[in-house]
Amino acid sequence: MTSSETLDVIARRFACRAYQDTPVPSDILHTVAEAGVRAPSAVNRQPWRFIVISDKAALDEIGTAGLEGLKSADEAGYARIQSRGGVLLYNAPAMIVVATEPQPGSYPVELDAGIAVSHMALAATSLGLNTCIVAMPGVAFQDPALKAKYIPEGFDFTIALLLGYATNPGGTPHEPDFSKIIYV
To answer: Which of 26, 101, 88, 79 is nearest to 59 (CA)?
Structure first.
């Protein structure tokens, strides 16, 4: 297999589900968010806003609300989080929420959000951070007051990126199944 710095970052990134309480420097958060803004989007609409949250009280508020919402909305999801320590945001010291603005027709803003969050996850990994791409915090934003507090008007939660330093930095990336590739 051909190798490059980017391919090495892709190969070593893993879904971190336990973070140290060490804050992420604001300049690194800024750089990671800029990587998201540089992501391509269909028709260059850039239907997103990136909400960078590093305030512990805000993260705790979102995590607690999300866990409570998950308890009644998704029993299996709630059970999975409980089996992983019972903390929705895994004690991450930072999170970047990708909120999207609905577009006319069947324009798939979720695809653009996925591309952007992937850019940010790889940028963060290249800068020495650990990440986890998550959708479950979206349950917290079902609460209109919480949504109004953190998500710009006219936008909806789509996906988020947890960032920080792993309590176990030697985490294992998922095992790729190369049989999923079909060549024509």
So the answer is: 88
